[in-house]
Amino acid sequence: MFSWLSRDNNKTEVYENVIEGLKTIYRTKLLPLETHYQFHDFHSPQLEDSDFDAKPMILLVGQYSTGKTTFIKYLLERDFPGIRIGPEPTTDRFIAVMYDDKEGIIPGNALVVDPKRQFRPLSKFGNSFLNRLQCSMVNSPVLQNISIIDTPGILSGEKQRVDRGYDFTGVLEWFAERVDRIILLFDAHKLDISDEFRRSIEALRGHDDKIRIVLNKADMIDHQQLMRVYGALMWSLGKVLQTPEVARVYIGSFWDQPLRYDVNRRLFEDEEQDLFKDLQSLPRNAALRKLNDLIKRARLAKVHAYIISELRKEMPSVFGKDSKKKELIKSLGVIYERMQKEHQISPGDFPEIKKMQEILGNQDFTKFHPLKPKLLEIVDRMLADDIANLMAKIPLEEVNNTETTGNVKGGAFVNVEDTVSPFGYKKGEGIDAGAGELDWIVSREKPKYDQIFDQIATAEGKVTGMGKIPYLVSLHYVIVLLITNSARNSIKISWTSTILTCAASST
Ligand SMILES: Nc1nc2c(ncn2[C@@H]2O[C@H](COP(=O)(O)OP(=O)(O)OP(=O)(O)O)[C@@H](O)[C@H]2O)c(=O)[nH]1
Ligand SMILES: [Mg+2]
């Protein structure tokens, strides 16, 4: 019966590559422990090979209208099938934006039966969820190395709970466990964290290492307001995240429209570069992330085994099973404390007590298995030997991966560290000021200089006389800006030198 308990399981294998290795050790060493203690009913479904093979994924989470869908459009620099953008709650489903030569949409029910994709376990969230799930296939170079998950905006209060008809936070948790990055978007123009959003962030708390926070739509406000909004966001986040460290927040405006206030341009550009570099590194670090998640899962599976076997031990063999079950569920906190001391488990490794109590309520404790030290030993060995072996392989694979697949390319990623093209990083400054804007940069200054001109001009609309030189120098500045903005470099040089010559000869 326990064929997986054979001595082979204790052997440390040599694996061809990290992903293959992870698949094998999961199947042969961790999965037996998980199934024996019903881990999948309590925490997360069984992992499949497609979970390990999947491209790195980015999950976008935020309240409605914070610019999640626009963010994807900005990254891809194009629309994807089924895209809807608008100031009202628009996206009403989970959309996996993935690469394919042929563009199109796969609806949820068909998506979860596709063995090649990693979404099969999502079928447990029921039909009303599957009607709200789709895969949009796009032929974009960005998606050759990553996939992006767009989510419906989080609404506030009852609306969220009643209208959805499926376990929204459960789905978020499922994705959070499998993705490589979670981008939390906040709207600088409408900063507020609703109760529902707070609950969703709390559900993601186990994956803080994957979370990146973006203060989006910062182009809507000026620098003074931005400082205040940033401060307010940090204050609210401190309360929700409850970590002693300060969260890194990327400030910016991730859409293709010109900025309303130019003062923050450089800040936005720097922040965008940092965020994009972080996202670009995802394919390179994908194996490490999967390894990290497997370790996390193995630790939880071990603690889970201890809890279940402890509950089994406490159950009476004949009478009073129901009342004992109730008592055990109630005193779960005490059991946690006892086990903490007995097995030297850190308190952070225990599953959330409330959630555990809820699930335990529907379980038959007499069906739980007693402790099987052999199973735990196999997992311990796996953590100590196999994981260490695979870890040693990672630096080598990273080099190979960068050579074969490389970073994320195309779309908005073209501008990362691009200092050559006129629209690249740190362009639009100094002599290139206004390069990325729709309006001529001079129109900002024009009224001021029109006034000066009106003051010094004669009735025929001309400027004459030596006394006007200071004004002419100012006007020269305007002309230089004007020429620069028109990007006619050859003319710029000759005009500028002519003006400078004129100015020199007149003094
Ligand atoms: N000013 C400004 N507006 C933006 C920015 N990004 C998006 N918007 C606007 O914000 C509105 C909402 O954008 P969406 O992309 O639909 O937001 P969403 O988060 O996907 O919204 P839901 O799908 O409803 O959750 C649209 O009108 C966008 O044009 C930005 O960076 N700056
Ligand atoms: Mg949307």
Keywords:
507 residues; alpha/beta; Topoisomerase, domain 3; 3 domains; 19 helices; 50% helix; disordered C terminus; binds magnesium ion
List unreliable stretches of 5+ residues.
1-12, 487-498, 500-507
Computed over alpha carbons, the radius of gyration is: 30 Å
Helix content: 40-55%
Based on the structure, what is the oligomeric state of the protein chains? single chain
What would CATH call the class of the largest domain? Alpha Beta
Query: What fold name stands as the CATH topology of the largest domain?
Result: Rossmann fold
Shape descriptor? elongated
Helical segment count: 19
What fraction of the residues are assigned to beta strands by DSSP? 5-15%
> What is the residue-mean pLDDT, rounded to a whole number?
81
Order of strands in the sheet with most strands:
3-4-2-5-1-6-7-8
Distance between the termini: 102 Å
What can be said about the biggest beta sheet?
A: 8 strands, mixed
Description:
- By secondary structure, the chain is α/β, with parallel strands linked by helices.
- The protein has three domains: 144 residues, Topoisomerase, domain 3, CATH 1.10.268.20; 227 residues, P-loop containing nucleotide triphosphate hydrolases (Rossmann fold, 3-Layer(aba) Sandwich); 68 residues.
- Helix content is 50%, strand content 8%.
- The protein is built from 19 helices and eight strands.
- The chain has an eight-stranded mixed β-sheet with strand order 3-4-2-5-1-6-7-8, sandwiched between helices.
- Helix 1 runs parallel beside helix 12.
- The longest helix has 33 residues.
- It is elongated, with a radius of gyration of 30 Å.
- The termini are far apart.
- The N terminus and C terminus are likely disordered.
- The site of guanosine-5'-triphosphate has 23 residues, from helix 4.
